[in-house]
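Hello forum,

I keep getting stuck at the same step: I have a sequence, I want structure tokens, and every attempt I make locally crashes halfway through. Rather than fight my setup again tonight, could one of you with a working pipeline run this one for me? It's a single chain of 253 residues.
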Amino acid sequence: MTDGWCFIYDPVPEPVYLSLIISAYNAADILDKNLPVLAAYLSGQPFRYEILVVDDGSNDGGETLRVCERHQCTCLRHEHNMGKGAGIRTGMSHATGAFRIYTDADIPYDTDTIGVMLYCLDTDGAPMVIGDRNLPGSSYFTEIPRVRRISSAFFTYFVGTIVTTDFFDTQCGIKGFRAETADVLFSRSRINGFTFDVELIYMALKRKIPVRRIPVKLRNQDRSTVRVFRHGVLMFLDLFRIKLNHLRGFYTT
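Reply #2:
Ran it on my machine without issues. Output:
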């Protein structure tokens, strides 16, 4: 009798193709309502994906974590509220996908936008893709409250004229990156608040990283955590911090 042997097939796990990142603050109910929409779209795609939700210090008794568990998402947590920029940066530092997209908790834009972004990033090789609500084919500004529409238009015009030069929609809540581009930009990002979007585009322009813009269509508009006047002042102050950070060499080294 001879000793036998058996071959155990242990396949290498398929690499993650897409990491989708959401930063959320006291938004468990919004996530609970909208994560199924996102999961339904992604589960029908022929690739492996991960959804990373960063709980940015919510005081909801752990409800955000329970929602993530219910919808099979990875939940990362800040002990204290640090800002959307900090939340997205944390998510990006834990992402493993070849392509990385971040959006808002209410999944504000048609899920087909994700497919368009992936086509630009993968097939076309674009290093960075951003939604632009001003492009032909977009629908957004006619469907939001008037005060927010006016304040957004003023801020984006100021940013596009003074900071990012002709990029007039920096705040659209969906942006995508190839992994190597995300590593470069988010390892140098310093703005924790809502103006981190401006910082990312500013860094990309200074580093001569091409930025592709695509139209977006509004799918949903849940309550916003942006307070027009209070956050508006902070966002304008952050614009000067971005300029100062550039002068100090933080973005180009």
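The longest helix spans residues 228-247. If your local run keeps crashing, start a new thread with the error log.
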